[in-house]
Specification:
Helix content is 28%, strand content 24%. It is built from nine helices and 16 strands. The protein has a five-stranded antiparallel β-sheet, with helices on one face. It has a four-stranded antiparallel β-sheet with strand order 2-1-3-4. It has a three-stranded antiparallel β-sheet with strand order 15-14-16, with no helix packed on it. Helix 6 packs across helix 8. The longest helix is centred in the middle third of the chain and has 27 residues.
């Protein structure tokens, strides 16, 4: 059946020899076409911030009667009957994937961000944003200001109506990993810092977060209009995991799963709340040694395993068992279709090329190869 995880979208794609249709769905598939046409279709799964791949582990019975999300409705509206023309990586370092649907005046882009909290952004042919899962901002240096006076930062907002900042998305990794990378000026960020320098970097990030939150919150509080006081206040806190996923950390390319693994390996909590006022005693400089060692050593081990010939192509699919009634109904529905879904009693959650600390008690399927 379809995943019930947020941010999971299923696309029904026509076989190249049998048509050119694409339908974007959230946790469900189209049942508008039947018979022989169904056998010529492929299913593409896209999960915001996590993965994209073809799949056969999918049942039409899951959430078939549920109302699609507003974002899924936008995908249907703009991408239906468009061919998936191209899939490219934006830039050489960042994990941003551009799915181009249609051509000419019908061109649309679906941009998948595979870093930080992840995102899915639907744009027109000129990259003007039509819909997205979450808004966020890029902070870029304003080169007009003299370096001796400090560097001003300009906020580029990713939101509906704006043009998606393709240039920033493709250069963010290199620019931000060289920033805050220690006094010796190398490009490794936290991986090359001492415990004291790492603490100072974290404190400066938290101070900037606090100042920005207080500035925006005060502007909202003092604003005029009917919506006064209804906007959500920005949080001055950052959890440890989110802090390490900041581009300036130099390890944000590890991704959420590996960062969480390294934090747990160091004996810390990924959800530890930090701010500029409490970091002195919540995570003092003396506590950064084990964390840095974990990021360097354990991170390298996990990434190195991906290159190992012994583990090439292998991996795990994490799942949770379905409720009994739901599972029985799923099996009954699958018995009426062919081929039968061998995992109708499970909700498949995510693919992992390795089992990390946070997955040790998670039920999983082991595959020696996905070829």
């Amino acid at each position: 059946g379809g995943s019930d995880s947020k941010g999971v979208y299923m696309f029904k794609l026509a076989d190249p020899s049998g048509g050119s249709a694409a339908t974007g769905k959230s946790n469900t598939s189209s049942t508008e076409d039947g018979g022989e046409a169904e056998s010529k279709r492929a299913m593409l799964l896209i999960e915001s911030g996590v993965r994209f791949h073809p799949t056969t582990h999918f049942s039409q019975s899951s959430s078939s009667s549920a109302m699609p999300s507003p974002f899924a409705m936008k995908l249907r509206k703009h991408l239906r009957n468009l061919r998936l023309e191209n899939v490219t990586q934006l830039g050489n370092l960042d994990r941003v994937v551009d799915f181009r649907f249609g051509s000419g005046s019908y061109t649309h882009h679906l941009i998948l961000e595979l870093y930080s909290q992840g995102n899915l952004v639907l744009t027109d042919g000129e990259y003007r944003i039509l819909a997205l899962l979450r808004t966020h901002e890029y902070e870029v240096k304003d080169g007009k200001k003299d370096e001796r006076e400090g560097v001003e930062k300009e906020e580029v907002k990713v939101r509906v109506g704006n043009v998606y900042p393709v240039t920033l998305a493709t250069t963010l990794s290199m620019d931000d990993r060289t920033e805050n990378s220690g006094e010796d000026g190398n490009k490794s960020g936290l991986l090359s810092m001492s415990a004291e320098n790492a603490f100072e970097w974290a404190k400066s990030e938290l101070v900037a977060t606090q100042q920005r939150a207080r500035t925006i919150n005060s502007q909202q509080h003092g604003g005029k209009g009917k919506k006064k006081g209804k906007k959500k206040q920005l949080d001055e806190n950052l959890v440890l995991k989110a802090l390490l996923l900041r581009p300036g950390s130099g390890v944000y390319h590890y991704g959420p799963s590996l960062v969480e693994h390294c934090i747990l390996f160091a004996g810390l909590e990924p959800t530890l709340k930090l701010n500029a006022d409490n970091i002195e005693y919540t995570l003092p400089s003396g506590s950064w040694g084990d964390l840095l060692e974990s990021l360097r050593d354990e991170g390298s081990v996990v990434l190195g395993n991906l290159q190992s010939p012994d583990s090439a192509g292998s991996g795990y699919i994490l799942y949770k068992p379905k409720e009994t009634k739901e599972s029985l109904q799923e099996q009954k529905n699958d018995a009426q279709t062919a081929p039968q879904n061998p995992h109708s009693d499970k909700t498949l959650l995510e693919f992992q090329p390795h089992l990390l600390i946070q997955h040790k008690n998670q039920p999983h399927l082991t595959y020696s190869t996905f070829a």
